[in-house]
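Reopening this ticket.

The earlier resolution said the output was attached, but the attachment link was broken on my side. Pasting everything inline this time so it's all in one place.
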Amino acid sequence: MKKPWKSRMNLCLIGACCFILITVASLYAEVNDGTQSKPLRVMLVPSDTGADSIADDCKPVFNAITQVYGLHFDIRVGTSFAAVVEGMCNEQVDVAWLGVVTLPIVVKRGCGEFLALDVEKGQSVYYSGIFVARNSNIKTLHDLKGKSVAFGDLLSTAAFNFPVAMLIDAGIDPARDLGKIYMAGSHTNSLAALREGRVDAACASFNVYEKSVQNGIIDPKKVRVLKKSEPIPLPPMGMHVKLKPEVKALLKKAFNNVHKAPGIKPDQIRGYGGKKVDRFDADYPYKNIETSLKKLSAVTDDVKASIIKKAGEK
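Inline output:
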């Protein structure tokens, strides 16, 4: 008969061994390498751009990289911004098209690092906006007091964080001063709520607004800009920290140079929202993204919680 202390020791040893095995397994868990059998798993944040498929918008540039550099990709769209972040940090995503708010999250958590962002006419910026009906009597941000407003995803830079920062900067407490708050989940849903007359104002990126106009989803004769943000760094792409060094280097090289590769057409160089751009920049200073994020410091967790609470009120 085994003595109780020996049984407990055996259990402890077994538990310790299991812990070591699990830890070693997590340390050496493999991410994909971009071969045809192990394509790099790309996940896009669901920042709708007025198209039927965000993945289809972004495929041309990834297809061009496959054509020139032999890296293969499996492109999907996340159900939410948070899902993309968790996918990368749980080693289910190798490359993610993130945002100014979400890239620093994966960097801070130690699972992602900056890859590249697109460049058009020498710039890598876009804008957030608050939109209202053209015939609305809302002329300034202060006129939004008591009015209903639609926001996008809580982690969206242009459909939530910058609009909230603009309101706070104007002396408006969103949870206290606004009327009904709608968390629409995406840029296009936010704009759709305005188009259908369900809200007095909607928050979205100008890229999404412009593409929605081009696709006939939004009538520019019926919508006007109430407030445009300062320039924001374009939504950057991140890559998993555990990618092999040679894969990281090839990804950087590919995004820096694919626009000038033989056989690649300008129409294939598609940036954020599927928009045609001039090129990508994998050497963009990450500190610029961090600086932009500091401007959102007023959008604290408490502010977010109060907005979500109000959005849940009937």
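Reporter confirms the inline version is readable. The two ends are 66 Å apart (CA to CA). Confidence is low (pLDDT under 50) at residues 1-29.
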